[in-house]
Amino acid sequence: MSTRDLPLDAKDIPGIISAMTEGDIDAMLQESVEAMLDAGCRVIQDRIGQTDGGWADIHFTNDKWDVIKEMMRLYFISEKDMAA
């Protein structure tokens, strides 16, 4: 299920969240971490003139990736709690 296809009315948020499976949530978190890191690293790389993002891929592996994903999971939980 993709929440992108669902209406974006605030009153629908609890229903959207409750319809999400663990797989949906994990995919959403994965996508959010990738988007956040891509955008953040791009700002730094553009400022310093770096055209190769290879170091960012290496830097944000394993433990660092997991920490960021956990932060996004906690944010999702807070959104879920606020919508309830």
Features:
84 residues, mainly alpha, 73% helix
Written overview of the protein:
The protein is mostly helical and 84 residues long. It has one domain. Helices cover 73% and strands 0% of the residues. It contains four helices and no strands. Helix 2 packs across helix 4 (63-83). The radius of gyration is 16 Å and the shape is elongated. The two termini are 20 Å apart. The model has no long low-confidence stretch (mean pLDDT 88).
**Domain module count:** 1
Q: Please give the number of β-strands.
A: 0
How much helical structure, as a percent, in the residues?
A: over 70%
C-alpha end-to-end distance? 20 Å
Give the overall silhouette.
elongated
Give average pLDDT, whole number: 88
Largest sheet: none
- Strand composition percent: under 5%
What's the tally of helices?
4
Overall SS class: mainly alpha
Q: Poorly predicted ranges (pLDDT <50, ≥5 residues)?
A: none
Rounded to an integer in angstroms, the radius of gyration calculated over CA atoms is 16 Å
Q: What is the helix/strand order?
A: HHHH
